[in-house]
Amino acid sequence: MENLLRPLIVVGGSVLVTLFIGWATDLLLSKADRRHPETPLWGLLRRGRIPYQLVLCAALLRGSYDEAELLQEHRVAVGRTLTLVLIGAAAWLAIRMAAAVVETSYSRYARVHRDAARVRRVRTQVSLIMRVVSAVVGVVAVAAMLLTFPAFRAAGASLLASAGILGIVAGVAAQSTLSNMFAGFQIAFGDMVRIGDTVVVDGEWGTVEEITLTFLTVRTWDERRITMPVSYFTSKPFENWSRGTPQMTGTVYWHVDHSAPLDAMREKLRDVLRECPAWDGRAYGLDVTDTTPNTLQVRALVTAKDADDIWTVRVTVRERMVRWLCEEHPYALPRVNTADATLPPGRSNGLAFPDGAVAPRQRRVHESPRVDR
After folding, report:
1. pTM of this structure
2. Average pLDDT over residues 276-291
3. How far is 347 from 319, CA to CA, in rounded Å?
4. Residue 130 above 90 pLDDT?
5. Nearest to 216, CA basis, from 206, 224, 226, 203
C-alpha cells in the first residue's frame, strides 16, 4: 500500500498544487486587469498561464521525484526529461513575459504620442526586438538542455561560455542568409522603412505589412503580397511616400483644345476640390505645361494628407473636370482639324517645287478623340 500511495501522493499533490497556484495567480491577474484597464500588462501576463503551470509542475515533480520512488530503474531518464521540460517551459514563460512588457510599453507610447510616423517606427523596432529576444532565449534554452547530457556537455558549455551569444551571431552572420539580419536591424533603428509605410518597390505600390529579421512583406493595392529580403532596402533605391510626413502633392493632366477656357477650368477645379473630402485644403493650381499643334497639356496640382487620399483626389478631379468640359465646353475637347492650311502672305494655294511643278493643296489631319467638320 505504501508503494502505491507514495507516488500517488507525490504526483497528485504536485498536480493539485500546480492547478491551485495557477488558478490563484490567474484570479489575481484578472482582478488587477479590471482595476487598471488603462494598461494591458495584466491581461497580457495571463497569456503565460500555461507555461507558468508547466514550470511549477515540472519543478515540483523534479524536486519530489526521489520521494515518490517511482520507476527507479528509469530514474535518470525520468529526471532528465523533467529537467528538459522545466527548461523549455521556463524559456516559454520568459518569452511570454517579455512580450507582455514590450507590448505594454508600446501601447503606452502609442497613446501618448500622436505622430503616426513615430508610432510606426517604434512598432517596427519593438517587433524586431521581440524576435531577437525570442532567438536569444531559445539559444540559451537549447544550450542549457545540452548541458544536461554528458555527451553534449562540452558543446553546450562552449556554446554558452567560450563563444557566447555574440559568437553565435557573428559565426552565423558570415553566411549570406544572416546578412539580412543586420539589414533588419539597420532598417529598424535607422528609420528607413516602418510597418505601415507606403512604398514603391520595383514599380509596385503598396503598404509595408510585416518586417522580420530576414524579409519584408509589402501589401499591394490589389491585396497581393510581395515578400522581399530586407537587404534589398539597404542596397537599392526605393520610394517611401510616408518618410518624414505623409502629406503628398499629386498631379492630374488633360489634353484640351487651344480654345479651352483656362480661367473657367481653374474656377471649376477650386469648386471640385472644395466638395472633395479627401482634399486637405493646403494648395491647388492649374497651369499649361506643354503645347502641341493640336492640343494644350494642362496640369492640375492637388494636395492631400496621405497617399490614399491623394489617389482619391486625383481620380475625382480627373473625372469631374472631363464631365464638366463635355457638358459645358465641348469645343474645348481635342479635335481633328480638317480645315485648309493657312499659307503665308504672298503665297499661292499650291507649293512651288524646283522643277516648276505645283504641289496640291494640303490639309492638316491629326488623329484625336473628336472630329469637328
Report:
1. 0.46
2. 90
3. 45
4. no
5. 226
